[in-house]
Every structure is written in structure tokens, then in C-alpha cells.
Here is the input.
Amino acid sequence: MPALSPTMEKGNLAKWLKKEGDSVKSGDIIAEIETDKATMEVEAVDEGTLGKILVPEGTNDVAVNTPIAMILAEGEDAASLKGNGGVATKPKAEQPARQEKAAASAPPAEREEPAKKAETPAPAKTGTAKPPLAEIMPEPEVPEGTELITMTMREALRDAMAEEMRRDSDVFVMGEEVAEYQGAYKVTQGLLEEFGAQRVIDTPITEHGFAGVGIGAALAGLKPIVEFMTFNFAMQAMDQLINSAAKTQYMSGGQVKLSVVFRGPNGAASRVAAQHSQDYSSWYSHIPGLKVIAPSNAADAKGLLKAAIRDPNPVMFLENEILYGHSSPVPKLDDYVLPIGRARIARPGNDVTIVAWSMGMTYALKAAEELAHDNIEAEVIDLRTLKPMDNETIVESVKKTGRLVTVEEGWKQSGVGAEIAARMMEEAFDYLDAPVARVAGKDVPMPYAANLEKLALPSVAEVVEAARAVCYR
Amino acid sequence: MAVAQTKQTAQDTQGLLPAADLAATDASIPEFSKEQELAALRQMLLIRRFEEKAGQMYGMGLIGGFCHLYIGQEAVVVGMKLAMRDGDQMITGYRDHGHMLACGMDPKGVMAELTGRRGGYSKGKGGSMHMFSLEKKFYGGHGIVGAQVPLGTGLAFANKYRGSDDVCLTYFGDGAANQGQVYESFNMAELWKLPVVYVIENNRYAMGTSVTRSSAQTDFSKRGVSFNIPGSQVDGMDVRAVNAAAREAIAWCRAGKGPIILEMLTYRYRGHSMSDPAKYRTKEEVDKVRTEHDPIEQVRKRLLDRKWASEDELKKIDASVRAVVNEAAEFATHDPEPDPSELYTDVYR
Here is the structure.
């Protein structure tokens, strides 16, 4: 009795279409079975003669895997089956099925070759392994006296791409308006001139399609940088990003390598209303198989984008339109590459920890300044990478301050702040002197009106207020 | 357009497939040599027997989840593969077992993936719908209907980027042909003249919905018209017709002329997946195709008629194919499940 689905346990043998003595070929329909959901035809899988029907038609509730008939191969005859009745339709196949169950429940020791055994670690007692800790590179050394060049985040991002494209001919940029228009936000300015239309590719407005084309090119071993004009439009491509980019390495047992960066502005810009003002930080950081980066300044943007392009995994690189024009110093080094997965202490302090990233850092740093006037020394952590998240840096800070405030433009529910709060409860519970406070975007679609938009977003005042609250001051 | 058109005028009454006598009378279909016929027979038999075994093992609970069998459609992938050369790539959707076998992937590794064992192509982590072999240039195995179309277009993009003249064969079904991303891909492929053959396997049913109930334009070879992509309909049950069309289409792409569409008129004998009783079509319809158009029977008949092989020799071929499939089933049944430590590997590199 075959199973029609993994959940089927028994079925009714409705009808025999062949009788004993009939010859059957593989593919011939020999019987009909039915369950409460469906009727299905049973095909013979072997060639021969229908030797004996074991379950007559009209029998109900036949358990799955019960032999229903025996097919005689050429040369066998029905007499040879006597006394053996009810053993198996397909004796060869039935036996392995039982062994399979044994193999599934016991450690697969006996069939393993000794050499293989040595390299595969013994299963953990609980039966599941622990997730490996992410290997994180150290921060690069910036030698004393290194010249610092002040540049905008826009220029830093462009420089990162240009440097990596010079270094590796497999790296190319594709997206809407990245070439001739020089980038909708001018992030790819000058790249077409230097690298040509072969490597700086204007796409039609077709996010789902070109995200997939980029992933396909990565499947073939290229290293695409796919620009979304904004991440709001990447929702069109969500299936490719999650189902194709994030999962394929795993689903191929590690055979496939997908080195691809998806980048573009994320979060609220200014006065563009709900459909153009969403923060996707928590969306992408929910997904195993993706790395998620969200820098707040030019140096981090450059060092992390270079790292993202070199990373052999799919990376979501979340930029911010408002920050594009912000200038900050970038070390003038030949190869400034920052570690993915490492947070940065942007401002040391002992009284309260404020964790932010990307645009949230502008609120956090201003709030820290205001708090300092009242003798509250906030430690501001710039997360920089959202996945894998640098727990350690946050935990160490919370051990020192005992208080934590998170800042994000995204919504509170299931947000990154919620994740950080949960992690601190798990890993630093004994060190917390107050509940974790979250400053986040209000639970509404982004309004257009200037005053309402301001209210919907986090503010410096809200961060200050939250910090005071957790400090009980 | 440089591609041979298999004439559509002589369809059978149900409009399902080219009439049974079309292949025999249509002089535009080049004959196969004895060697080609035998190679095609062996490959198609391997797929048929493998799928029958997979169905059996599914019924026994050895294979879980979804399992989409390729039985009936064998001539498509085999005819196409016989026209490919080393370096050309292949990518398809979830009805992928036949494609993997045609690519020369080891039946043991494919079957062990179906049973979720460590010796499977994806170490048991992918299952029936998600397998890959970079060595054999097979790029999956994709579970989301239509998602493989931009991916295959991207593989073709990489060929062009690298200045190679390799061609990517991107397969999808009549169901996937209604997905938006297919047309996004068509647009870019023609715009950038990418070397991609879009092989639409029209088996007449998107799960349970017939082509006529789902498609405003049921001639899928015309689906590229608004992008200037040429296309033709091919008798997908005749491996020679498939091969002839494939040769011309691949040559078209290799010459840098951009993408091309081949609509393969084919038929699946089984349900959409193992758990589909296929009540949306009549038994007579299925029987008619099986008796009049079966791709394997056509080759067998020609081999016998021309005395290129005897019944005995054909039986021997079948027996050797069965032996390969049984060995695969045996391996897939006894190979251990993945080690628990594999849970967390391969998420990242």
C-alpha cells in the first residue's frame, strides 16, 4: 500500500484492474486506492506476472507499506511463493525500508568508512549541533599618522566599488540608472567612464528580474553588485533575495557559492511618504544565509562595502539617502577593509549603553551629547553589521552600564531593537539594572505631512528621554 | 527566423499533441543514426525507470515531501542534452530528476538526495527540488515556480560577460510561463542578446489547471513576440524533433543572436506531484498519449522496425538500466542520514 503523501497512514483498496495471472509492465496501472482525500492509481514498477493478490478489492484501512500483491519475475512461478504469502510485493524494496528505519534511529556507525568517521564529529548528546560562532576578522590597523580624507558617504561607497572593480574583473555593477545617469543618487558616479558599459550595466525597471539575473551571474561565479534604487523597490525582488540568494548555498550542501551584494538606500528619506520610506533592517536580518550591513559614516561605508564585495556570501548592504551627503574622515590606505560582524564603540561612557546603526546613529550621538550636559555618560555602539550581530560588544557594554537603549527607524514590533533586548535578557540579564528601552519608528505607515513625518520618526529627544528613564533620572 | 518550425496543423482531436502520424510523415524531422537512437533510448529509459523507482520509494515512505515525476516528458531533456556541448549550462524548476540524469549526474547521488541522505548531491539538505552539480553544469533544481528563469538568464549573462560562447538552457513549464519574472527576463535577454534557450515544457497542466484555463495565449512559442524573441513549437514526444530544434536553437544562441524559445509539446503521465490523483483529466486522455505518443516506445519501434536491435537486445538494455536504478535505490536506502553537525554547515562560507 503506497503512501500518497507523507502524512497518509492507511488507505482503501478500491479496485483491482489486473487479476492474478495477468502480465504487467512497469507503468501499467494495476489497482486503485483511495483515502478520505483522493483516489489514486497504483502503477506496477516491475515487469512480470501478477502472481498473487494479497489484499482483495474493497478492503478498507490497509496500512501504508502493507504488501498488496506479488509480481513474479520471469522464471518465477506462483507455487514458489506458497508459505511465503504476505511477505512483500517487492521483496527487495521492502527489506531496505526496514533497515532505513533502523539507520534513522541509531547512529550510522556500521556503514561508515573509518576515514570518514574520523573527520565527522560525533553527534552531540542532544542530537543537534550548536550553531558555529561567526569568525570575525580583527579591525584593520590604521597606522599612526595615516592621512584622513574627509569625504561624503556617497564618495566613499563609489571608491569602494571602484577599488574592488580594479582589483577583480569578476566584480560588476548593475541596476537602474547606475551607468549613464551616474546613479539615481550619484553613488556610481564615474564608474561607467572608468569601467565601461560591460561592467556598469543599466537595467530596465525590473527589480524581480534583475535581482534574479544578478544571482544567476553569481551562480556562475561572478561577483555582482546589484543596486536597488531604493530598498523599497527590492520588495519586488523579495522572492529572489530570500529563496534564491539566501538559501541556495545551504540547499546545495555548500556546493554553490553566491558572492553577491545588494545595495541601495534603505529607510526614510524625506517627505516621500509611506511607499518610499521603509526600513528593512529587521526583514533581512531575520534570514539565515544573508549578511546584513548598515553603516553610518563614510569610513565604515567604504571598509564594509569592500568587505561585502569580497565576502563569498549574499550581503544586503543598507545605505541611507540622507547620510549619502554626510561627510566624515576616511583613512587614506591602499586597502581599507573592515570586518563584517563587528560593532564599533563610537563614544565611550559608563552610565547607559545606546545601540544604533545607520541613520539611528545621528540621533544616538546627538542624544549622548545632550545627556553629557547632565552628567550622564552614554556609551554609543554603532552596530554596523546587523547579521551576524556582535553580541559580545553589546554585552560587555551592558555589563559596564547596566542600562540599554536601542534606536531604529524601523517599527518596534519584531524589530532589531526587540532582538537586541531579547539577546540581552538571555545573555546579560543579571547585569541589567533597568528594562531595555526601545526608541523606534511609530507603528504607522510613513505620513507625508512634514509635522507628522517628524512625529513618526525617532528623535533625539526620544532617545534622551529613554536614556534618562533607564537611568531613573 | 532560422529555427525549424514543427508544423502545428495536424493536431489530434483533443488538441493535445501533434497527431501520432506527424512524426512519421514529417520529412523535416531528421532521422537519428542507430547510435543516436540507442543513446536516446538508454537515457530515456534511465529516467523512466528512475522515476518509477522514485514513485515506489515515495509510496514506501522513503522519500518525503514533494516529489514531481518526469515520466512522459523524457524526450524533451534527452533530445536537448544530445545537442549540448561541454560548457553549456542547464537550469530548471522542481520537476528536475530527468534533467539531472540527462546531465550525467550520478543516479545514486540523486536518489540519495530524494531520500535525504548524506550521499545526496546536497548532502540531504535540498531534497527532490534542490540539487546542483557545478561539475556537470547543472544549476538546479528550483522550487519556486518561474524563479529559475531570471537565474538562467543570469547564467547566460555570465557567459557573455566572460566572452564565452557557452549557452544556458533554461527550462520551465506552461505554468511558470505566466509568471511576471519570465517576461522581465525575456526583455533583458533580448536587450542584451544573451545566449539562453528558453525551453518551455508544455505538459498541458499547471498542477491541475489546464493550459486553456490559465493562458490567454496558449501558443507559448509566441510568448516572446513582443520582445522580438523567436520561438517555435516542437513535438516534445519525439526525441529526434526535439534534438533537431535544439541544435538550431543552440546554434542561434552560440552565434550571438540572443535568446530563443522552444515550446515542447509534451505530457506528464503522472500527477503534478506524488500526492496528486490527477482527477482534472480523463483516463482516456492519458491512455491516448501513452499508447500513441510515448517517447520511449517510438524509439523502440524504430529500432525494431529497422532491425537495428532485437527484442532481446532491447531487453538487455532495459535490464542494465534497471540494475543502475536498483543500485541507486539500494544506496539511497542504506546511506546514513546527514550527521547532526551538518545542521549548521553551509549556511555561510
